[in-house]
Amino acid sequence: MITIIGGGLAGSEAAWQAASRGVHVTLHEMKPGRYSPAHHSPHLAELVCSNSLRSDDPHSAVGLLKEEMRRMDSLLMEAATATSVPAGRALAVDRELFAAWITEKIGTHPRITVVHEEVTELPPPDKGPIILATGPLTTDSLAAALARLTGEAHLAFYDAIAPIVHADSLDRAIVYQASRYDEGPGDYLNCPMSEAEYLAFTAALKAADKVPLKEFEEQRYFEGCLPIEVMLDRGVDTLRFGPMKPVGLPDPRTGREPYAVVQLRKENREGILYNMVGFQTKLTYPEQQRIFRLIPGMARAEFARLGSIHRNTFVCAPKVLRPTLQVINRPDLLLAGQLSGVEGYVESTAMGLLAGLNAARLAAGQNLMVPPPETAMGALITHLTHTEAKHFQPSNVNFGLFPPVTERVRKKERGEYRAHKALAALAAWQAESGLTLP
After folding, report:
1. Is domain 2-154+315-433 given the CATH code 1.10.1760.20 in the classification?
2. Mean per-residue pLDDT, 29-33
3. How far is CA 387 from the centre of its chain?
4. Does the pLDDT at position 357 exceed 50?
5. Cα Rg for the chain, rounded, in angstroms?
6. pTM value?
7. What is the CB neighbour count within 10 angstroms for residue 252?
């Protein structure tokens, strides 16, 4: 028997992996009895920040990670394929269908029991393997229990959520459809800005009211998900070279690239809702509505969800975790998801996959497994357990985490080379370890 605490992406994937290997799983999820400040759906595997799982290019680091997970029979990758929505070169999903699909699969598995109740303390060691996958919003009681166990203070940064807008409230005489450099209609809606409009927008953004941090909170953001107002503080052109980059998006009315562009990505298959790409924010709700309606084409925008900010909690993995994701001083306990020190939906799910695999092997008295460092999963494990502790920060998967390329390979071909090498290493590891489902 395995106990899993937390029914998000990592916990759901871990449950599926363990149960698929013949082990009985009890999955504890506190919803719907209690919700975190960022969660709203009663379903398992709720996507909070965005509906995008990022690039699906198998020669990119995150695309390679997805392919590795598919080859490891990932439930969540199967769900993403079944509920995908158009998003150019990215893999995006209809978040409601995605969560409902996974909830149904988990709920009907004969070896998984879902218990909807909050767990406030870690179960004792004699209860069999335990996976803690409570995510970036781990409750204070469980975080305190983990801190007492590890003797390490938790680090925290603050992750901001982008707004969602109703498509029929956009001015389609201004907003145009295109994906960067793509021919044809494209998968994104684009709001073009002149220089004057951009400067007016950034001036208003800079002066806008923000939600203040609480007394106990420290301003510490993940670099890959900075609030737009924090980016703007780094320079007036930061947004124009970041999420508002106009390159490859000529305005069909002029045939020229605008000075800046706000991109909107489909939030659901029907195209009823669109997510403001890269517009995570900590502006107050009234200020969001006022400021974002300054964007050309959004003067009458109606918002299905406004942006917000929430705490992200994680352990200092190099001091706390073994490469198997076991806690060093309590090997029956494994950590998964963002709590383990990775960042991103796909990365969190991958850690759930590995935790579920190893918990099942632990329950069966088998040797635990660590993927090869040449793989995307292995590169993440290396980051978690071999980074100098005083410099540790959560990370998305990227090729900088992989072993260096020592062979002579042209720079533009390195992604393909790394992917080929990683998948070969994964296949050999699976074959040598007997990592096939019964």
Report:
1. no
2. 91
3. 21
4. yes
5. 22
6. 0.81
7. 10
DSSP for 213-266 reads: PPTT------GGG--HHHHHTT-TTTTTTTTT--TT--BTTTTB--SEEEEEEE
Q: How confident is the model over 386-413, as a mean pLDDT? A: 87
Q: Where in the chain is the domain with CATH 3.50.50.60?
A: 2-154+315-433
Nearest to 359 by CA among 336, 387, 393: 336
Contact 191, 295 (CB under 8 A): yes
φ, ψ of residue 270 in degrees (nearest 5): -75, -15
Query: Which residue intervals of the chain bear CATH 2.40.30.260?
Result: 161-309
Please state the φ and ψ torsions of residue 142, each to the nearest 5 degrees. Answer: -70, -40
Please state whether beta strands 188-193 and 260-266 pair in parallel, antiparallel, or not at all (unpaired). antiparallel
Q: Are 136 and 74 in contact (CB under 8 A)?
A: no
Each residue's pLDDT tens digit, 280-333: 998 999 999 999 999 999 999 999 889 887 677 899 999 999 999 999 999 999
Q: What is the mean pLDDT of residues 183-208?
A: 93
Q: Which two tokens stand for residue 180?
A: 């960067």
Question: What residues contact residue 35 under an 8 Å CB cut-off, 6+ apart?
Answer: none
d(CA 131, CA 299): 47
- The answer on pLDDT for 184 being more than 80 is no
pLDDT of residue 219: 64
Contacts of 82 (CB under 8 A, 6+ apart): 97, 101
CA 281 to chain centre: 17
Residues in the chain: 438
Q: Residue 83: what are its φ and ψ, rounded to 5°?
A: -125, 25
Q: What is the pLDDT of residues 365-383, one digit of tens each?
A: 999 999 999 999 999 999 9
pLDDT score recorded for residue 82: 97
Fold of 161-309: Elongation Factor Tu (Ef-tu); domain 3 (2.40.30)
Strands across the sheet containing 188-193: 176-177, 188-193, 260-266, 273-276, 164-166, 303-305
**Angle between helices 376-386 and 414-433 in degrees, nearest 10:** 90
What was the pLDDT predicted at 216? 46
How many other β-carbons are positioned within 10 Å of the β-carbon of residue 256? 10
Residue type, 300: R
Q: How many CB atoms lie within 10 A of CB 331?
A: 14
| Residue 422 in tokens | 């990683």
How far apart (Å, rounded) are the C-alpha atoms in residues 341 and 316?
A: 7
